[in-house]
Structure formats: structure tokens, C-alpha cells
Amino acid sequence: MGLALEVVMHGGKRWAFQVASFRGIPIRIHVSLLLVLPLLAVVFGGVFRQSAQAAGIQPELMGGPVFLWGLGVAVGLFASVLVHELAHVLYALRTGGEVRSVTLMIVGGVSEISEMPRRHRDEVLMALAGPVTSIGLSALLFVALVLLPQTRSFAPPFFLFYLASLNLILGLFNLVPAFPMDGGRILRGLLAERMGLVRATRVSAFIGKVFAVLFLAVGLFSFNIMLAAIGVFIFMGADSESRQVLLRSVLEKLQVEQLMTPRFHGLEADTPLEEALVQLRHERRLALPLTQEDRPIGWVVLGDVLAVPEAQRSGRTVREFLKPAVTVAPGEDAWSAVRRMVEAQPPLLLVLEQGRLVGTLDGNDINAGLAVQLARAQRGGERSPRWRQERPA
Ligand SMILES: [Zn+2]
């Protein structure tokens, strides 16, 4: 089983429901897991039957229906995956990381780690915590097997042996350096010490993709659907993570003022809706900042204005639809601005300097500005942002 890919996957969340929480972090189960559970129970149960036959065990000494023992191994396996994930989570939390959720899926566990530990060494140890825990769990199960009282029935000791073996495989497989699997993260962390995060990620992602193609090919040729699926997940994960690291490295070097749309006045809070609509359409914006005696207080969204029947728009003001401001300073780096956008989901950020509005920042500003900055970086040369020259005294 190739489990425990720490891929940031937003699509996966849609089909998952929460079953528990750990230190405030939701633990979710993906529906794909429930679909595959009976299938795994049958497959694992079949292994019980074949092994008993090979050992010449009589059916009455089996120790219960094989399907139930198979189901037990399947549930035990996913519990083991959860323990593996929680080891990562605990280490991440201890070293200043942030974890959004843990989701158990058909290909294994996914910990959505929104903020990685800052030091590369901690990332290496965080990645190592999962496989080490799995191998430790395997050792514990083998010890339990040795300590198990002698019994004539076949299934209980075989259950322990089987689960111990699966945990050992889980631990070892995750050490394969196929980024973003644990082994790949360890590799990336070690490389990052020498060549920096961006290059280390690029190299590890390339190696990860080579493994992904290999897993996919072997999986398809040997009809191992699980391995093939893991190949696809690794490929997508390697791609999206290396892109995210690149984006972050560029945005961290940019300041908000280099990307924002300069703006020194918002709509006054007592502007009638009719007038606000004209302004929103004229500027082709989905939201505009609101000010009161020139002090920014929030924003108004196009959708809210449109929801008011046309006949009432002249009698009501934008103040009714005021949303509290999420603000950013012009000197802040663009990556922290983007993180604020992802967390609070505002339509735009208000850029304030000494309490006064100097601009707005939304997704379009970031995309457009990023393209310009990348082109400018290739040409070289820096200029003072133009808004400082245009700003009223
Ligand atoms: Zn892991």
C-alpha cells in the first residue's frame, strides 16, 4: 500500500466528512474509503483463507468467518494510517507548523499542512516521523504476536502478523524518495540545505515524477490499480507543490505596493446604491472600498447591490452592505497578503498607510502584477512604484 501522501488537495475535501478531531484539527474520511473497505475486506479475507489452506489448517480451527477477519485488517490498516498521519501532525505542531485537516482517502492519509516548519531540518524530521512511527507500530505488533497466548485457532496470530507486515510495508514504502511522499520530503529538505528551497523542490519533484510514471506503468502492467492510482497522485502532487513553492518564492520578494491598484478614495458610505452600481460597472470591479470622511471602513460587493430591486436602489445607501475591512500595509510582502486572502476570502484587501487608503489588492492585481514582475525580473532593474509619485500630498 502506498499511503500517506501529504499533498495539499482541495478537491479531495468535497467528498469527505468529519468523524473526529485532534487538537482542534478535523479528521475526515473520504467516501472513496468507505467504497473500497468491503473490497479490501474480501481481498484480505482471501489471504486468510489461502494462508490457512497452505498451512493445512482445518476450517473449524480458523477462528471465525474470514470476511470479518479481512474487515478487521482493513480497518486496522486505516487506523494505522491515521496514527502515521498524526505523528506528522504532532511534529508539525511542535515545530511551529500549522495543520488544517487530516483526511483518510483511498490512497492513504493526507495531512493538509498549511504552514510547513520554517527550518529545513524540522521538515526532514516531520517527514521522518510518519514512517518511523509505522515501523515502530509494526515492531509493537510483532511483540504482541510473540506474547499472544498459545491458541489452536489460526486467525488471531495471523491477524497480528498481517497487520504488523502491512505497517512495515507502509513505513518502508513511504521512505521511497518520490516527492511529495515522505521520502521525497526528506530528500527535498536535505537538498534545500545546499541549493535552496526552490531548486531543491524542482529536483525532488522531477525525481518524484519519474517514480510516479514508474508506479503507474508497473501498476497498469500488473493490474495493481492501487499502485497506478498512487502514481497519478504523486505526479499531480509533485506538479502542484513545485508550482506553489515557485510562486511563494517570487511573492515573498515582492511588496504589496508593487502589485496593488493605487486608489486614494473609496465610495463614501452614504452613496446611494444606484450611484455605487454605476461606479462598480464603470471600473469593472466586483467590489469597491468604502470610506467615511476619507477613512477606509470596509467594502461593498457588486452582488449585494444587484440583489436589491431596482426601484429601491436610489433610496438606500451602500452603508447597509458594508463588510468589515481586511487590510494590508504597502510594505508587507505579497505572500502574506495572499495568505490573508486565502484565509479570510475577502473580495479585495484594502492597502492602508498610516490609516489612509493608498490602494486595493485582489486576485487580478496579483496575477497581472506577477506577470509584469516576472518579465521585469528577466530584464532586470527596479523602479520606485509609480503610486508614490501620483499620490496626493
Ligand atoms: Zn507520511
UniProtKB/TrEMBL annotation:
<keyword id="KW-0129">CBS domain</keyword>
<dbReference type="InterPro" id="IPR046342">
    <property type="entry name" value="CBS_dom_sf"/>
</dbReference>
<dbReference type="InterPro" id="IPR016483">
    <property type="entry name" value="UCP006404_Pept_M50_CBS"/>
</dbReference>
<dbReference type="GO" id="GO:0006508">
    <property type="term" value="P:proteolysis"/>
</dbReference>
<dbReference type="Pfam" id="PF02163">
    <property type="entry name" value="Peptidase_M50"/>
</dbReference>
<protein>
    <recommendedName>
        <fullName>Zinc metalloprotease</fullName>
    </recommendedName>
</protein>
<feature type="transmembrane region" description="Helical">
    <location>
        <begin position="68"/>
        <end position="93"/>
    </location>
</feature>
<keyword id="KW-1133">Transmembrane helix</keyword>
<keyword id="KW-0472">Membrane</keyword>
<keyword id="KW-0862">Zinc</keyword>
<feature type="transmembrane region" description="Helical">
    <location>
        <begin position="31"/>
        <end position="48"/>
    </location>
</feature>
<feature type="domain" description="CBS">
    <location>
        <begin position="260"/>
        <end position="318"/>
    </location>
</feature>
<feature type="transmembrane region" description="Helical">
    <location>
        <begin position="124"/>
        <end position="147"/>
    </location>
</feature>
<comment type="similarity">
    <text>Belongs to the peptidase M50B family.</text>
</comment>
<keyword id="KW-1003">Cell membrane</keyword>
<dbReference type="InterPro" id="IPR000644">
    <property type="entry name" value="CBS_dom"/>
</dbReference>
<keyword id="KW-0482">Metalloprotease</keyword>
<dbReference type="InterPro" id="IPR008915">
    <property type="entry name" value="Peptidase_M50"/>
</dbReference>
<keyword id="KW-0812">Transmembrane</keyword>
<dbReference type="Pfam" id="PF00571">
    <property type="entry name" value="CBS"/>
</dbReference>
<keyword id="KW-0645">Protease</keyword>
<dbReference type="GO" id="GO:0008233">
    <property type="term" value="F:peptidase activity"/>
</dbReference>
<keyword id="KW-0479">Metal-binding</keyword>
<feature type="transmembrane region" description="Helical">
    <location>
        <begin position="210"/>
        <end position="236"/>
    </location>
</feature>
<feature type="transmembrane region" description="Helical">
    <location>
        <begin position="159"/>
        <end position="179"/>
    </location>
</feature>
<keyword id="KW-0677">Repeat</keyword>
<keyword id="KW-0378">Hydrolase</keyword>
